Amino acid sequence: QVQLVESGGGLVQPGGSLRLSCTASGRTLSSYAMGWFRQAPGKEREFVAAIWYTSRTDYAQSVKGRFTISRDNSKNTVSLQMNSLNAEDTAVYYCARSKYIPAIYAISGYDSWGQGTQVTVSS
Q1: What residues contact 58, with CB distance under 8 A and at least 6 apart?
Q2: Which of 15, 48, 49, 110 could lock 96 by a disulfide, CB 3.0 to 4.6 Å apart?
Q3: pLDDT tens for residues 62-93?
Q4: Radius of gyration of the chain (CA)
């Protein structure tokens, strides 16, 4: 069983940046694809970014060019660098471990989730 813990959330002004981290314990992440999702108030949880175990990456269109997902297998962590943040990025951000690559863009493709970290973009 793997435990995932997110950190790095907070309050940031529009145009600002934040870096989220997801640290795993209990199991190594190196052989798994990992994803970041987010859930805004009153909305469904949505895909944000994914990184394969090969370090291939993909992003939701809404964050492409602004967010960067990366992994450090030596530290068993996955990070999400978020730049040019705007109010629409306000949400709870979750990291998750993939269980089924063909469903990497869907919630059903993941079997372990962190508790989430709040990101609020506001002036």
Answers
A1: 49, 50, 104, 105
A2: 110
A3: 999 999 999 999 999 999 999 999 999 999 99
A4: 13
